[in-house]
Amino acid sequence: KSANPQWREQFDFHYFSDRKDMLDIEVRRKDNKKHEELLGTCHVDITALPTKQTNCLELPLEKHPGSLLMLIAVAPCTGVSISDLCVCPLGDSSERQQIAQRYCVKNSFRDIKDVGFLQVKVLKAVDLMAADFSGKSDPFCVLELGNDMLQTHTVYKNLNPEWNKVFTFPIKDIHDVLEVTVFDEDGDKPPDFLGKVAIPLLSV
User: Fold this and answer.
1) What global pTM score does this model have?
2) CA–CA separation, 168 vs 145, rounded Å?
3) N or C: which end of the chain has fewer CB within 10 A?
């Protein structure tokens, strides 16, 4: 019930500098749980923003009244990676020793925000639901930790996909929950949900 909403939410996106990406933003209004109405869109060219500083942007909504006020910072990202199983980060014994030293008890108060790392090896899925008329699915896997999100590639026409990918996240809050969701890629349509598991970090 507001024409001037304040969200004050922060989201982290992993942007790779060799890509020419646009940040696409949609503002929507909910009438009820099922019906949504588009109130406007705007776009930000990430490559045009100065790096290592917070940019305050007032973005007019295209073809609709109103504007969106945002703070966007493009900064080097540490700790996040996607790799193949054969070149697994943190797999080297000397690197593991450095990590253990960095997070030992006597160093635990040097940087309060540097809680640690979470490494997840996504190997495969078994007996997924068939989402296509062919009796197969085109599954990919999405991992979310806090506001960080990474995903695997899609394995086409397969109910037992093997991804064999390693994901490394920096942990910002030890009370976060790792959410792993499997979707079926459906061309230009939104992906179909195939299943989900949630793992509290404190249970690891």
Assistant:
1) 0.62
2) 10
3) N
The structure tokens 């959410």 sit at: 179
Token readout for 140 is 């990919």
Joined together, the tokens standing for residue 129 give: 């639901």
Taking the chain, what is the end-to-end CA distance rounded to the nearest angstrom? 41
For residue 4, CA distances in Å to 16, 58, 66, 130 come to 33, 14, 9, 44
- Name which CATH class applies to 81-203: mainly beta
Comparing C-alpha atoms, which of 165, 160, 162, 169 is closest to residue 199?
169
Task: Specify the domain boundaries for CATH 2.60.40.150 within the chain.
Answer: 81-203
Could you read off the pLDDT of 42-101 as tens digits, one per residue? 999 888 888 888 999 999 999 889 999 999 988 776 666 777 777 666 667 777 787 778
